[in-house]
Amino acid sequence: MRHLLWLATALVSTVVAEDGLAGWLRYAPLPEKIAKCHAKSIPSQVKVLGATDGLPLASAVNELKLGLRGIMGKEVDVHSEGCLGDETPTILLSTLENYVSACGELDADEPPSLEEDGFYFNTKDGNVVILGSNERATLYGTFEYLSRLAQANFEAVEYVDNPEANIRWGNHWDNMDYTSSTHGSVERGYAGVSIFFQDNKIRSDLSRVAQYARLLASIRLNAIVINNVNANPITLTDENLEGVGRIADLFRPYGVQVALSLNFASPVELGDLDTFDPLDEDVVRWWDDMIDTIYGVVPDLAGFLNKANSEGQPGPLTYNRTLAEGANMMARPTARHGGIFMFRAFVYDHHLDHRDWYNDRANAAVEFFQHHDGEFEENVVVQIKYGPIDFQVREPPSTLFAHLRDTPMAIELQVTQEYLGQQNHLFYLNPLWREILDFDLRVDGEASYVRDAVSGKRFGHKLGGYAAVINVGMDRNWLGSHLAMSNLYGYGRIAWDSQSDSVEVIEDWTRLTFGLDRRVIDTIAEMSMLSWPMYENYTGNLGVQTLTDILHTHYGPNPASQDNNGWGQWTRANEHSIGMDRTVWNGTGFAGQYPAEVAEQFEHIETTPDNLLLWFHHVPYTHVLKSGNTVIQHFYDAHYDGAEAAQTLVPMWESLKGRIDEERHAHMLRRLVYQTGHAIVWRDAVNYFYHNLSGIEDEAGRVGSHPWRIEVEDMALDGYEKVAVTPPSTASRFYAVEAAPGSSEATATTTLGFPAGRYRLAVNYYDLPDGQASYEVHINGEVVAAWEGDYDLYLGNSKSEFLDGHTAARRWLGEVDIAEGDELKIVGRPDGIERAPLDYVVFLPEGVVD
Ligand code: GCU
């Protein structure tokens, strides 16, 4: 007991301010007592066989020194030769091959059977033996050892760890150019500008790239595509290729290979050809030469990625050539250099006629690709988004995973939270990924898990695996939010082992990121595991998709934006009914793209799970779910449940104060507090929208009834003007106020009619970029609260300049004592485009969240 008490105090008192730059590779000192107790089990001597500067074995030695010094306070002697067995405990780092040629067969019960990138790990018998199938595998094993130590795991073990798939790539949607500044923007990046590009060139200072390389290697990613899939042809100019070479030089020591996105029209845009027809001889020659040139600069380039004929990008269909003809034209010269050609399945028509009941964007991948199965060169891998639409909060798996038997596949995931709260909302993704990967497609009536289709196991391919859009930026903590980094870590874990347990992953990550305090580990795990169901509840449930504004920034709520346009993310909501009819008998036929057993399940309402009901079926709002609730009541309840669950995040996080360093604690607290308010914005916007559309009341009487709110447009306004908000449901009662253009101050005044007492005060307003309006709340002439519209300064979401669901926000202003008849006055002082916009004030009695 005394020991435990001591441990708890030691853990709490060793928190040092941190900025998140080191991610999970902090190598923070273990509590002294633990370190002392286990110091003897760490060998003082390291033997490394065959290390060369600039290659992964040398990095492994550096990491080991750094890690042992940091975690254990231990220095080691490094020798560049020798075997085991001279009595001195040794950490031996080598490739298996080098080891065998230098030291003879390994003394193991069974000789390890290593696959590409796999390693053998043995800490039994007093030595630490790490033998990789190649150099980077030895580095992976070294990171594994350090990760175990950092988590105070000193268990003596012996095992082989092989990856499930050989493609474990990151994608970056980084742009070289950015019209409004000289920095490289990141499309769907929420954490600052590009770490690679600036001013249409490769950055001269690439120090963040070297740090990033360590993080990627530690989670065993083996390649990174550095530029956007919407590729800029100028990436391939001589000057920029030289820069790509510099980037590759920084990744190489960590065994991460660089890859590039290619623009199909480059022969025209960059070269001087007047066609990019893939069957034109000059075009073929142009690409042959270009790809040779690229490999001349980066001989170990992993390969290329291409987005063709999608969302305005050029491709082979432009010339009536097939997708396979297009991909193969570039894949052939890539194959000569041993590279992989990743070809995206995200091909669809974004001008679909929404009036046609049978049109469906979800059908596109299979329609475009199924006839070309087997026509691709051997080094082509089709990269398929996990769902048929676009990284929604819930989708069934892409049907294409069941159709490409003769073509290797990779699944495309998103670490960057494009539709999932853009890192301002907590969303731990591993459970969502697991659900997709564990889905059994029943191809030919046999077990056909998505994970086995993508690893190559199900259809017998050597190639296959994972790609995730990561999009870290120049923010010190990489993804903008400290907690969002669990998704990058978790991606590495799942790409290596699709069966990795989501709770174990978050716990490991937490230990590495925040230390060993059990309370911290349990709380972060609880918050993380809550995050998907919570976000799904307050954004879009029953498979209707994330009801975000798809025409603008994909962030805040706007259910109406899904329909009546060519983008095909339709919900088909009308006054009576909602949902995409994807049945074969009456709908778009999408359900029939699944193999028979799954198709049969989704064809019928009775056998479709509630959480995918509106994905597959169009039903009246009054349709009764398996839960016994109607669709509309489920919407109302789920949105209330989700927003209420979001309120628990702050107290949970606050309970960790003092157990986590102040810097990271305060940073996350700000985001979580914001999320609690934005969850309410989401709840109300979606509920108002469907309440209005269906005309059906909430059985619990909550929707549209807010007895504790005061609409600012109903107050006596001086200098403020009433404005209609678009979309209307993102304002309480559809209106807000803004100070008149050019004014420096505006006020809104009213007399309070609430019973005397103590209330929690909050205000909903709009927080715009390019301006920090300031506000004061006066009660009977006394300032009781003040704030500035400064969320835009520290939140990472894509910005909007309008009063809408992206900018709608809540400020919690503490507690106030009021009496009936008190005067409430709000003073707003505009700044820039932010004309001190206000929606409503709310006085919350104890226990009420509204
Ligand atoms: C989404 C995303 C785009 C991206 C596209 C893609 O539509 O919003 O920014 O370019 O996917 O994956 O290619």
Automatic annotation (TrEMBL):
Residues 23-145 form the Alpha glucuronidase N-terminal domain. SUPFAM superfamilies: (Trans)glycosidases (SSF51445), beta-N-acetylhexosaminidase-like domain (SSF55545). Keywords: Carbohydrate metabolism, Glycosidase, Hydrolase, Polysaccharide degradation, Secreted, Signal, Xylan degradation. Its main location: secreted. It is found in: Secreted. The keyword Cell cycle does not apply. The keyword Nucleotide-binding does not apply. Belongs to the glycosyl hydrolase 67 family. This is Alpha-glucuronidase. It comes from Sodiomyces alkalinus (strain CBS 110278 / VKM F-3762 / F11).
